[in-house]
């Protein structure tokens, strides 16, 4: 009998009155939201609403001009290179795999401190303990199998279809066993079947790793967000115009208006900026 999984607490992320200005342009204005432990929170909004800017604030790529963030109730100043250590993993809007590494090596490279060794090993052939090496490779292969792309383990990313590369990028984020996973437009560029499979996958993320992984899903694709998120925050012109459960948000006329007024209908999916 296998031992019960070790419980892992999800991270409690909160933003308070966050604002971002790019010169005269207000990209985010007084944005407050919370991603409680083990919850899947979606951030949606039409193109240009500020979704990616918000994502970049949480990752530390864009410093907020005003407001503050907390992680588990403590002040949080995000720095991109410190995220993994804090138990935070992300996937970017593009795919961003290392082109010189195989799929398997890319995933191995996603494992926190072992990750750096993995990357160095892959690049320079530096020795690492055989046991670590084997364990990480097995974990990476398991993840690839779970995501249905193990057959591509030895392939170079550039030779693979976009949807496969997106899964590899997700495996690379998951191998670090994040307590908070940040996804920026994971459905972008995917066809309807792939989006449906992605939805199923994201829904199972919190229970993975035997504990509560929180997810912040930034996504233009309304259907995906509605079907996987427990809570939604709707941005328009940098402001929160609605927040609540998918049902509450769906019926909110303010949201319909924001999406109808936008250049791309919500269903057009994939093509979000
Ligand atoms: N680095 C930047 N410099 C200047 N303006 C930016 C920058 N990044 C985003 N913006 C602007 O901020 C607004 C929000 O953009 P973004 O966060 O990418 O929206 P979304 O992801 O919801 O489509 C847009 O008007 C965009 O043009
Ligand atoms: Mg965006």
Automatic annotation (TrEMBL):
Pfam families: ABC_tran (PF00005), BCA_ABC_TP_C (PF12399). GO terms for molecular function: ATP binding; ATP hydrolysis activity. GO terms for cellular component: plasma membrane. Residues 8-262 form the ABC transporter domain. Keywords: ATP-binding, Nucleotide-binding, Transport. CDD domains: ABC_Mj1267_LivG_branched. PANTHER family: ABC TRANSPORTER ATP-BINDING PROTEIN, CONSERVED COMPONENT OF ABC TRANSPORTER FOR NATURAL AMINO ACIDS-RELATED. This is Amino acid/amide ABC transporter ATP-binding protein 1, HAAT family. It comes from Micromonospora chersina.
